[in-house]
Amino acid sequence: xxxxxxxxxxxxxxxxxxxxxxxxxxxxxxxxxHDFVFFERDVPYYAGARDMHSLxxxxxxxxxxxxxxxxxxxxxxxxxxxxxxxxxxADAIAAADQIGSRxxxxxxxxDLDTPITLAQLxxxxxxxxxxxxxxxxxxxxxxxxxxxxxTELRTRLGARTVAPLYGHVDPDVHRPVAPLAHYRSGLxxxxxYSADRQAALQAYFINPSRRRPQQRFLIGGAQYPQxxxxxxxxxxxxxxxxxxxxxxxxxxRLTLNVTRAPMACMGxxxxxxxxxxxxxxxxxxxxxxxxxxxxxxxxxxxxxxxxEDSAVAALDLSDGELVRIARAARERTLAEHTxxxxxxxxxxxxEAARSRSEPQTGQRVPVEA
Length: 369
What we know:
alpha/beta, 6-stranded parallel sheet, about 375 residues, 13 helices, about 15% strand
């Protein structure tokens, strides 16, 4: 297939969870002999922290504004088998209009932020990447979140066909490596600051750090405010590029996964960071949400925190127990949660949607994947 994506960013991993996921997926699609084109508006805050300038096995199109890239977008869409528009794409509505009127490609929307989208709708806010007709004009809607979110995409946004496409990890990038002294910690946390994660971070990271002052705690991320409640034993590393993630995780005795509040409430929402940490062979302490046990077995593949005390208890587990949990989680990750597997899932979803949308008269010509 030829797949064209209009997305938020793939060139910069700064302050977003989209780029790393698309990099792993595009690499896997290229290995499976699909063509991949990614359109990204060139904005200053990503340009200033760009850590990918070309797309191995695919094509990256950086453009200053929609009007200037429109001829190229039309050409690529006309040649595509599937065109995917994503949440938070700067020109999502314009791109959706383009594929709706000028191409026979399969029309796909991929919401990598489904609980945030639905929360904005519930608050009466405008969703900038969804047009007035909702998602009714797409042949397929993919959701980063499963469970009840799939039903709500149908009932509230008019999606006709919905399927989950969960997060994943590229094990070539995220793997166990030698620990580094400046990343060593008893408990680490890697993630961009978000106010709706703060309550969980307070309970499972900040408060435990005060109860274990002799241990070193480490946060890596971006956009942390000056008023963040630091402790003397909490250390900070500003945004880390994906190339540094393995050393960060591999230097941790235990790492924390915290889910944004709307996603945790919705359930079935594994973050890319969760899979990355597990692939690096570090034991993971995670907040609890519905569906977590569908991805990792609590107690044997992941440690689940439901209180400050349970987080502190995880810090007190023996080295042998933590190693056993980490090894089991890595094996599960490599078997089920790689970018290669998600690429297979994506192609299967596209093929199924194309079969449903194929006219009986057969105007569309099937393309072998």
